Amino acid sequence: MNLKVNINNLRGSQMAAKITGNFTIDDHSFRFTAIAFGRIGGQNIGAKISKTTEKKLELLGYNVNDVIIQLQKNLLHGDLSLPEGLKRESFVDD
User: Which of 7, 19, 56, 90 has the fewest CB atoms nearer than 10 Å to its CB?
Assistant: First the structure.
C-alpha cells in the first residue's frame, strides 16, 4: 500500500500533540486527526478517521484497519511531509 502523509497542523508540545492532516492512497486524499504521546517517533500515536472516510476506503477495496495501522506507522517513523515553517527536529525523535 502506497500511503503518503501530509501534516497540516501540529499543536502541543514534544510530550503530547494533536495532529491534523491528510493521507493519500492511489490519488485519493482523506483527512485524519491524531494524538501523539512522547513525540512523533516516540512511544505512541493514535490516529482517527471519520466514518465517512472509512466507508469510502471500503468502497475502494481497502481494509480500514490496515490503512490506520500504516498511517500510524508513517507518523511514528516520521515518514511524512510538513507545512512550511515547521521543522522536523521540533517534534521527531531520531
Answer: 90
SS (HEC) of the chain: CCEEEEEEEEEECCCEEEEEEEEEECCEEEEEEEEEECCECCCEEEEECCHHHHHHHHHCCCCHHHHHHHHHHHHHHCCCECCCCCCHHHCECC
Per-residue pLDDT of the chain (94 residues), as tens digits, is 899 999 998 887 767 889 999 999 989 999 999 998 875 555 788 999 999 999 999 999 999 999 999 999 998 888 888 877 766 555 554 4
Q: Is residue 87 part of a domain?
A: no
> Which residue range forms the structural domain that includes residue 64?
3-82
**Does 93 reside within a domain?**
no
DSSP β-ladder status, 28-37 and 44-48: antiparallel
Number of domains in the chain: 1
Structural domain includes residue 94: no
